[in-house]
Amino acid sequence: MSIPAALSRRLSIPVIASPLFIISNPDLVIAQCKAGVIGSFPSLNARPLAQFEEWLVRLNAEIGPDDAPYAVNLIVHKSNDRLMDDLALCVKYKVPVIITSLGARVDVNEAIHSYGGIVMHDVINDRFAHKAIEKGADGLIAVAAGAGGHAGTTSPFALIQEIRKWFDGPLALSGSIASGASVLAATAMGADFAYIGSAFIATTEARADERYKQMIVDSSASDIVYSSLFTGVSGNYLKPSITLAGMDPDHLPEGDVSTMDFGSGAAPKAWKEIWGCGQGIGAIDAVMPAAAFIAKLRREYDSARGRIGIAPLRAVAA
Q1: Tell me: the pLDDT tens digits for 192-251?
Q2: Distance CA 166, CA 275 (A)
Q3: 190 in helix, strand or coil?
Q4: Of 204, 207, 209, 249, nearest to 229 (Cα)?
Q5: Which residues of 165-190 are buried (b: 16+ CB within 10 A; e: fewer)?
């Protein structure tokens, strides 16, 4: 199956920048798209609702036909009482790509398809992947072991293999990808795109605490802990941030999924004080502009291609 134009337009490298809760903002998304990767942000990062519309107006004005497309992440969980309002604005402004999380709904997918938008749904296992496609998603984001935030526990090799046995549509892989060589590896095993999040936290445009950015630079995979305590759903977090919050990262109790709350008035306290991050951060050695990081990814990607006898990319995909 060919990749829809809405996903392949003007990419300099096959990368989707994942939506970072609280952190992603228009400055970061615009920098990502202009550097040739699909930039994204969660709609709930814009609070109140009026700010979300302002962001969409700005993105549509500043991201042009020579740039990669942008994506909006919609949280489909039942606690998100803003979902339908956010969806209506996505339809109004014809957001090219929608990333749905924590639930798959036919009506949401149909609304996006009404104007020609593309829906990518993130999943942590093959069972959820089947459900997402059955409900009308166009593509999948395989969130494998080692990914930041709400991550799965399945090896990326196993997850991609299982999905590719039956699905030939757009597929992105998330999990410890922070170098150009890892991007190439993701595509070699069957993904169309690498899905990169944690590395973009350590960029100058990211709306993150400077201590958070530096902690990513200073940390490695051994500094990541997998816990369900903070949101009720298991995810990966920086151990030093847990220690700073006065807890023992090696002895955390289990969380309660019923505590998950994405309501429009909810204060995302846990995500401000306990910092999510994936296992791939050992490759991050400095805070830099998003464009500089993407250029670094491209150099590493071409170098990796050369090591296995593949010519470097010569032109941006039209």
Answers
A1: 999 999 999 999 999 999 999 999 999 999 999 999 888 888 899 999 999 999 999 999
A2: 36
A3: coil
A4: 249
A5: eebebbbbbbbbbbbbbbbbbbbeeb
Q: Which two tokens stand for residue 179?
A: 């170098």
Confidence (pTM):
0.92
Residue 11 domain-assigned (yes or no):
yes
- Report the distance separating Cα 105 and Cα 142, nearest Å: 18
pLDDT of 236 reads 93
Q: Using the 8-state DSSP alphabet, how is residue 305 labeled?
A: H
d(CA 87, CA 168): 27
Structure tokens at 109: 């997918």
Chain-centre distance for alpha carbon 35: 17
Measured CA to CA, the distance from residue 228 to residue 311 in angstroms comes to: 44
Nearest to 171 by CA among 207, 123, 135, 203: 123
| CB neighbours of residue 84 within 10 Å | 12
Among residues 142, 288, 275, 283, which one has the least CA distance to residue 221? 283
Q: What are phi and psi of 10, to 5 degrees?
A: 55, 35
Q: Which residue has the tokens 């998100």?
A: 80
Looking up tokens 């990966």 gives: 236
Identify the domain containing residue 87 by its residue range: 5-208+278-307
> What's the confidence (pLDDT) of residue 233?
84
What is the count of structural domains for the chain? 1
- Structural tokens at position 275: 């910092």
Q: Residue 41: which CATH number?
A: 3.20.20.70
Task: Establish if 222 belongs to a structural domain.
Answer: no
